[in-house]
Design a protein that fits this description.
Oligomer: single chain
Strand content: 15-25%
Helix content: 25-40%
Radius of gyration: 32 Å
Number of domains: 3
Number of strands: 20
Number of helices: 10
Distance between the termini: 5 Å
């Protein structure tokens, strides 16, 4: 690679080839990465040795088809947050008073939870923030603090912060309050400050915590105080920065009659529900939270799968020629669709002459509301599984759609084929051929 900067190589790859969008398919866990590695190693051991052409057109075609497969996989993965990415089970939480208690379902076993789990909640107190308000001062009069350098400390949880500021001869009280307001807000330590104006031209600094509630062994969300040091003292007492006018409180509620508390108005219950409370409930009138099937989410899921499939086989990628077999990609996807989706016309899914799947939204909606039978749901799920598998296969070896003469076959009599240390996959190094 004489005369070629390695950074230039990487920058060329990043700018020209790396996809600009990030999908759920890119957020791999360790076990998923291990599966990808095993797929590459297995493919390497079983594949013959090919002769790859050294031209940009072939590489670009392979990159394009890999990116299309990756986008297809990402689109399908984004439709479900369950471990089974092709799952068609959609549920949602409901409450009998959405304005006071909002809920969303976060469980992983929707089939078992629909209509079975739930609870009654009564809210007696909301979690609140702490608010300190200083002494009202005449804003246009000379500063109540003498000229000099001052400092005060803030204890927020287990952290302590020091704030320093200067007072000049020309400063008025409004200048001091504005100075501290900017200082606290700019520090962004979990506090916000603003000037509260009163009648007759008086004003005070109001400091509020971002977080609500009090954890165990805590009396306040934050404390403001002065410590010994070389700087001037008296800013906290003169301005009243440590004057708590509204202490932080925890949310108090009952779940099926059992008393509970939380430091926030947003919490989870039993790893099944994400709860947001916004108001107290009427005494003796609990709000019920439960799980129900979400037909609209299922309809959207099915339509999105068909849309992703249609886009995969219709979006142009490269040009069909002696080297690039773009029609093979399309025909393989159509073959998968016809294998699993034939016979779904009665729920509004039918084939067109181009191999795409047309969706009759009204028929699909009616079929879902009437409850799809297991056979129809299985067909759609198997179709989705097959698309994911095809996308993974393409990602491991996109070069199989590029013309590549066989140089040497694996020995069929060998009892153990080993991977080539220089060809983990034919795709992995092809971007760098021109730099050798």
């Amino acid at each position: 690679m004489a005369g070629i900067s390695l950074n230039g190589v990487y920058n060329h790859f990043i700018q020209d080839y790396v996809s600009k969008d990030v999908t759920h398919a890119d957020a791999h866990r360790k076990d998923e990465l291990r599966d990808v590695y095993k797929s590459i190693a297995k493919h390497n051991k079983q594949s013959p040795l090919y002769l790859l052409t050294n031209d940009d057109e072939s590489r670009n075609d392979a990159i394009d088809i890999k990116e299309r497969a990756r986008q297809l996989q990402g689109n399908i993965f984004s439709l479900s947050d369950q471990d089974d990415r092709s799952s068609l089970t959609h549920t949602s939480a409901y409450t009998t008073d959405q304005n006071r208690v909002a809920a969303s379902y976060i469980g992983k076993t929707p089939d078992q939870d629909v209509g079975v789990i739930g609870f009654d909640i009564e809210v007696t107190q909301l979690a609140s923030i702490q608010i300190n308000r200083g002494h009202p001062l005449p804003m246009e009069e000379a500063s109540a603090l003498s000229t000099g350098s001052y400092a005060f400390d803030v204890r927020l949880g287990n952290q302590e912060f020091e704030f320093q500021f200067n007072i000049y001869d020309s400063d008025k009280n409004i200048d001091v309050l504005q100075k501290l307001e900017r200082l606290i807000n700019k520090a962004d330590v979990g506090l916000s400050a603003k000037i509260t104006e009163f009648e007759n031209g008086f004003g005070a600094l109001e400091i509020a915590s971002h977080r609500t509630g009090l954890r165990e062994d805590s009396h306040n969300q934050f404390d403001i105080y002065e410590t010994s040091g070389d700087l001037s003292k008296g800013s906290v007492s003169t301005l009243g920065l440590d004057n708590i006018v509204k202490p932080a409180t925890n949310a108090l509620f009952t779940l099926n009659g059992e008393e509970k508390s939380a430091v926030s108005n947003h919490f989870t219950v039993g790893s099944k529900f994400d709860i947001q409370i916004s108001d107290v409930t009427d005494p003796g009138k609990p709000i019920h939270v439960g799980v129900m099937k979400d037909n609209e989410a299922l309809r959207h899921h099915i339509m999105s799968i068909m849309e992703s499939y249609n886009r995969f086989i219709t979006d142009p990628v490269g040009v069909e020629n002696d080297k690039f077999k773009s029609d093979r990609v399309k025909n393989e996807a159509i073959g998968i669709a016809k294998l699993y989706m034939t016979g779904c016309e009665d729920i509004g899914l039918s084939f067109t002459s181009e191999g795409t799947i047309n969706v009759d939204e009204e028929m699909l909606k009616q079929a879902i509301e009437a409850s799809l039978d297991n056979k129809q749901l299985s067909s759609i799920k198997n179709f989705t599984d097959a698309l994911i598998k095809k996308a993974k296969d393409i990602s491991v070896d996109p070069m199989k759609y590029i013309d590549r003469p066989v140089v040497n076959y694996k020995n069929p009599e060998s009892t153990k084929n080993v991977a080539s240390p220089y060809i983990t996959s034919e795709y992995s190094g092809m971007m760098f051929n021109n730099y050798s």
